[in-house]
Amino acid sequence: MLQQPFTPRQMFRLKPKTLEKRITAYYALSGDQDNVIKLVRVLQIRQVLGKEEVSKPCDELIRRLYLNGATETMKRYCYYFYDYFTEAEWKEILSRLFVVLPKLQRIYQLLVILDCYQVEQFVIP
């Protein structure tokens, strides 16, 4: 079983800036991308539940993780980090995480083009 770097008490009692520093240090020490993504998500939830104002916890770290690699956990949580990226970066991330997405978009475009034609033209009498 994987040892968690922080206790629930630490996650909800420490100041957000302190947690950001510790999460960054934890990543530098362990290289565990999946756990870092989950820890930052907990910080986001804490922000919604509490009074602290942390707009984008671990902004630089999350951007680096998503722009350089992809794991299943990152794929699962990617939509929570939409605000961290520009529109062009977001499209790149989605196309890398969801390989089939560009193909589906192309199929959709072709279906829209075919929809312009009347279906009756293609019916065999």
TrEMBL record:
<protein>
    <submittedName>
        <fullName>Uncharacterized protein</fullName>
    </submittedName>
</protein>
